[in-house]
# Entry
Amino acid sequence: MNPTIDYHAILPELILSGTLVVVLVVDVFLRPPRKWLAMPLSFAGVLAAFVATLTLIGADRTTFGGSYHVDPFAVLFKVFFLSVAMIVLFLSLRYFREGRYYQGEYYFLLLSSVLGCVMMPSSRDLLMLFISLELVSAPAFLIAAFRKNDPRSNEAGLKFFLIGVLSSAVMLYGMSLIYGVTGSTNLYEIGKALAGHLGGQETLALAAILFVVTGFAFKVSAFPFQFWAPDTYEGAPVPVTAFLASASKAAGFTGLLQLMFVAFIHQAAFWGPVFAAFSIFTMSIGNLVALQQRQAVRLLAYSSIAQAGYMLLPFALAGHGVDKEAFAAAVTYILIYAIMNLGAFAVVVAVSRKSSALLIADFAGLMRNAPLLALAMTIFMVSLAGVPPTAGFWGKFFVFRAGIDAGGIGIALAVVMVVNSVISLFYYLAIPRQMILVEGPEEPMRSPALVTFVAALAAAAVIAVFVYPDLIAHFPPLSTLVGS
# Structure
């Protein structure tokens, strides 16, 4: 094992680590009216890490004895996570500045979770994967309960913590069994070992894979482990919910992609049907329950569950001759989902200044009072439903095409996805209906400039990706994780 550390490969992580420590220390010396300066300092650190990541484009570097790998797949998701972090920081400034919050601690915890996200796509070892995932989750438990005087926020943090700890225990048990069977924690070595003849240990290996998948199913809020998500999303501060529904969920899927398509790919005949069941029930339950929601954040929470079902569909296609296409479809959908979801939560942050209840009825008359925000929200809702001319259409199209090309079960899954997409239209259009057709109070709504900027930028990106899908679609096939 080569003990040499490639500091260039881990430069983004080093910058983030230094930034989160500086933010916490500097906050001690800031007077209360200036506590908000922790956000620009955090943003500068994330931006520096973003630039450092760009210097790794095209790299293929391995460090820490092969457990940490920087390749096109890792760089793509590092850029993605750092971009999401900058957007969430924009959404957080006015939200936390206007309340009685400990801003230094919030930005420290947020950056800690972002650090875990950035580490995740480079983690090619079970221990490194577990550490990265826990670094994503542990700070998130605290910021989910950051509104200390709100019982709903306390409930959100407690439920998130209990379910998170349970899922970690189940996943870690599965990982320990994998190590016992293969004698390695390196994903590539595990894949080679599981490709051979396991004899009497084959049943134990399959049980271990099931434990690991179950642990990750909790993390990505897949059925039947999704019950924590709606209450956590509703009780957490809105910018935190935006982070959980985009970056945190994507981190879980990033880990799953590496495990299933690298370490466990030779057992796809076993776990493929498991993911097919996860996908069908997750998208169906998410959409059907969302139809009954009257609160905007809970609606988006169940929408997030349904969207997880669409993201799980490509996993069920592994072993059907379309591995690379399915892998690329999953990555593309994750990227597109984050854009439209963050944009939707930006509008929710703006509306939360008018009404903390955030009922769907609170969006009434928004087209007259804040036409830019109303137009952007309409674009996001239509995109989440997968209707052209929006990026969401391409996201579902690539998944649908992979299912059709796989044949058999893939075609059936594609049909289920289309049916669920039609069902989702009924609740996704509920908010645009309120904004456009229902009259509200004739009061101009002032939205923070950064929040409006995020909403406008995301709306422009959603339309731009539809017009020119290669803005995103040409990145996933370049990944080195799945061969041609």
The longest strand covers residues 61-63. The chain has a mean pLDDT of 86. Residues 151-182 form the longest helix (32 residues).
